[in-house]
Amino acid sequence: MYELFFREFNKKIALTPEEQDLIKKYLTPKKLRKKQYLLQEGDVCKFVAFVEKGALRQYSLDESGNERIIQFALEGWTISDLYSFLTGETATYHIDALEDSELVLISKSAHEELLQKVAKYETYTRLKITGAYIAMQKRLTSIISSSLEERYSSFITLYPDIVQRVPQHMIASYMGLQPETLSRIRRRISSR
Amino acid sequence: MYELFFREFNKKIALTPEEQDLIKKYLTPKKLRKKQYLLQEGDVCKFVAFVEKGALRQYSLDESGNERIIQFALEGWTISDLYSFLTGETATYHIDALEDSELVLISKSAHEELLQKVAKYETYTRLKITGAYIAMQKRLTSIISSSLEERYSSFITLYPDIVQRVPQHMIASYMGLQPETLSRIRRRISSR
DNA sequence: AAAAAACGTTGACTTTGGTCAACGCTTTTG
DNA sequence: CAAAAGCGTTGACCAAAGTCAACGTTTTTT
Prior knowledge:
Chain A has 192 residues and is α+β, with helices and mostly antiparallel strands. Chain A has 2 domains: 3-145, Sandwich (Jelly Rolls), CATH 2.60.120; 146-192. Helices cover 51% and strands 21% of the residues of chain A. The first copy, chain A, starts with a helix and ends with a helix. Chain A binds chain B through residues 60-62, 66, 68, 70, 82-83, 86, 92, 119, 122-123, 125-126, 129-130, 132-134, 136-141, 143-146, 173-176, and chain B through 60-62, 66, 68, 70, 82-83, 86, 92, 119, 122-123, 125-126, 129-130, 132-134, 136-141, 143-146, 173-176.
């Protein structure tokens, strides 16, 4: 239990067995069936979720009610509505499961106590968010400066596992496109 | 000297005078004239820069050589090519000054020593990057789910100071648009 | 096993943003 | 102070993405 979580943690900073045991006390396992919600827009986000197994997505609804996916999370990724989690404001995103999934939850109070009691937890958190920031900045850069063909091509080389496991229209949504448009981009790419 | 820097720092976590003096030893002031580079693509980014006064921009060049602005930084903001700074890889962004500016620089070695010696510096860093992450996620969400009119309208309410101080074609670049397109969007908005 | 839902593709047409050129105005430079 | 560069706007035209409808296939549900 929590194997992947601690494997990832130790990749960022090595923990002693004692620290690991202490941290374990603050973790809650949770299973989610495909299509179940972890978070719905309007609720307050009560936890950060680490994906041990499965796949989730985070999305908002535009004014026409279309789903706009802003993040996927496969094994080893962390997902949450950070703004809602940290401020206690109501969430602006939905999070649901794309496959049956196993999560490790960290509640707000657990998060706060861990920050106080385990210095390495703060470091872990800092490194994790820094990595997420850098990745998102790259995504943003490619959105404002690359062609759709390039964006899709780098997506499939960067996230081949997502391409395998997630329906194409969701990848279109992630790219801010209509499914038909992504289909045509794929044709253009393959006919070269 | 460093007034704004410490004002912002203390907003996130309060420092004792001693801590403040200690941190000061690791800071380097730097003045930059309008149009001067702080960082050029291909160099390694050697520092994180806090803006005491002035305005900067971070951008990359697309394949046609157009500037694509991914971030502005006014007083109180921090700017850097984080990926290059942290990994030592060569930078993919340019950073230059839009106005004569005064910066506070933190070098790589200063950053690392501060993380070790001053626990609150790690907290400051974590909070700062978390805020930047949340802001960027909101920007990304609006890019993939809002109309251009909405995006520009929220930009001017969110960053009225940038609208005042930065030429319009740079705001277009920040939004991933041509200057002509932004000009037309403005006309559409004002004619309502 | 049958019915329903979800998915990806294609075609025809519309809407939107990009491109190129021109112009007037303001700011910067020499 | 004069010349040059930078800036924002507009018009005409072009290219790209969105929309709507239809279809065959696959997956899920019952």
